[in-house]
Amino acid sequence: MAYYLGIDVGTSGTKTLVMDVRGRVLATALGEHGISAPRPSWSEQDPRQWWSATVKATKAALAKAGIGGRAIAGIGLSGQMHGLVCLGEGVEPLRPAIIWNDQRTAQQAEQIERKAGGKRGLIRLVGNVAMTSFTLTKLLWVKQNEPRVYGRIKHILLPKDYVRFRLTGEYAGDVSDMSGTLLLDQRRRDWSEKALRLFGIDRDMLPPVHESHEITGGVTARAARQLGLSPGTPVVAGAGDQPAGAVGNGIVRAGRVSATMGTSGVVFVHSPRYVTDPDGRVQTFCAAVAGEYCMFGCILAAGGSFQWFRNTLGQAEVAEAKRKGIDPYELLTRRAARAPLGCEGLFWLPYLTGERTPYADPFARACWVGIHSRTTRNELVRSVMEGATFAMNDALTILRQRGLRPRQIRLSGGGARSRLWRQMQADIYGSPCATVRTEEGPAYGVAILAAVGTGAYKSVPEACDAIVKVTRTIQPNPAARKAYARYYRQYRRLYPALRGEFAGIAAL
User: Fold this and answer.
1) Are residues 237 and 318 in the same domain?
2) Is residue 424 part of a domain?
3) Which residues form the domain of 134?
4) Are residues 187 and 105 in contact, defined by beta-carbon separation less than 8 angstroms?
């Protein structure tokens, strides 16, 4: 039987996964790496640690699976998006990688939008507004602040593509990940000559781009010895972590949406056509399906709000859970279940770290609105869960406004593990929701892409139809849906009312 290796270069660690041709996961492993913050709001990593973690995790996954490297028929790559790796001619980075959550580039983002004729001009050019997370802002920062480094750059790569270079010796990327550089013409699925001229970027720095399932090279003899693989094993282009995770959830056909309630929350919809939001509230990227697209919105502290409550106000539940040997979230969720729907008008605004969708406001602050004398811990807990879900619904509402209609929403992350939260999402989204058999994230998605690229399946949708199986479907409760619609309308009025106050608080 053929097996496939998925590699996901995450922020805190690199995960590897071994999957068979039917989609069964044999083993996973993790190699950790650190983050450096040389100054406040800066975030950097050493790309060489990504490679070391890949070597460690690959060898561990193969050992757990009980197979040799020769059994691996193909490899897929995913990773954190937008990070900038600057290389000369060799494998040694010219400087640490500036990664996605680095916030030093606000000035460069403003410059980019000004040169493009404003936000809408940039959206017409490359499909998205300029966020500090996107790669071009980082490249211009290096150009303006580290000219000696910039002058030595021969190649720029994204995080997973540095690992690809170490695996195969090839400079290459994929259209989904490169959509977040602000340099890709998404309609043509190739570099935008107009953008390159406008921002003064040499095309020779940029790698060729491929569809996600296409083979970009084979494992070199040296890398094969390091990882325990077979020389020549095909490596497909892969995808950025969000499009790759969508493949792992089967979000590869029109009408399918994923709602991932992790620390951040992502609402992701597949589209066979190119659609943008003229106000840039959600992002448009090339999908990991050849010739097709996706849109998604990101809520910065969705499940992170629940985590904050547990860490800050949930010490009693944490202690009780430790005594009973259970998850403290289970005890918190039991409390939430004892509170009434809507928490008698108590709202949680989940802006612990500012917000990205739909407001793109770094000054937004989290708060409770509506506490009164009857409020108990039960309402506090439930309101956090409801507030995070209302925020996810903000993104879903925008996608619906752009004409993308969900027939089914597939849930993943912590919000999919709780029966209460699953039903709450179905009721607030007003749509059937489902969970799938495997929640292994981007590494699973790119293992599927490797199976497609090496001929086990004819297309990504065909592979997902065969591999990704729905385990349960949750229908919205009509009465709860109607009630939540009223509460959501009130929730939508709160941020506009407080926006000026948030900016004033941030200025104190």
Assistant:
1) no
2) no
3) 3-249
4) no
Q: Which two tokens stand for residue 328?
A: 């403290």
Alpha carbons within 13 angstroms on the beta-carbon side of residue 385 total: 35
Residue 310 sits in a domain whose CATH number is 3.30.420.40
- Structural domains of the chain, count: 2
Q: Which helix (H) or strand (E) holds 436?
A: strand 433-436
| C-alpha dihedral sign at 398, 402, 407, 412 | negative
241 carries an active-site annotation: yes
CA distance 46 to 23: 33
pTM listed for this prediction: 0.91
On whether both 217 and 332 belong to a single domain, the answer is: no
Nearest to 26 by CA among 72, 70, 76: 72
Beta strands in 233-319, from DSSP E residues, in sequence order: 234-236, 239-240, 256-261, 265-271, 283-286, 293-299
Could you tell me if residue 452 is inside a domain? no
Torsion of CA 284, 289, 291, 293, to 10 degrees: -20
Catalytic residue among 8, 102, 241, 394: 241
Is 371 in the same domain as 244? Answer: no
Which of 233, 249, 265 is where one domain is finished?
A: 249
Do 22 and 99 fall into the same domain? yes
Query: Can you give the pLDDT of all 508 residues of the chain as single tens digits?
Result: 899 999 999 988 999 999 999 999 999 999 999 899 999 889 999 999 999 999 999 999 999 999 999 999 999 999 999 999 999 999 999 999 999 988 899 899 999 999 999 999 999 999 999 988 899 999 999 999 999 999 999 999 999 999 999 999 999 999 999 999 999 999 999 999 999 999 999 999 999 999 999 999 999 999 999 999 999 999 999 999 999 999 999 999 998 899 999 888 999 999 999 999 999 999 999 999 999 999 999 998 999 999 999 999 999 999 999 999 999 999 999 999 999 999 999 999 999 988 889 998 888 999 999 999 999 999 999 999 999 999 999 999 999 998 888 888 999 988 888 999 999 999 999 999 999 987 788 999 999 999 999 999 999 999 999 999 999 999 999 999 999 999 999 999 999 999 999 989 988 8
Q: Is the domain of 390 the same as that of 496?
A: yes
447 inside domain: no
Name residues whose C-beta falls within 8 Å of residue 117's C-beta, 6 or more positions apart in sequence: none
Report yes or no on 161 lying in a domain.
yes
Contact (Cβ atoms closer than 8 angstroms) between residue 247 and residue 449: yes
Closest C-alpha among 276, 251, 174, 156 to residue 217: 174
Is residue 174 exposed (0-12), middle (13-18) or buried (19+ Cβ within 10 Å)?
buried
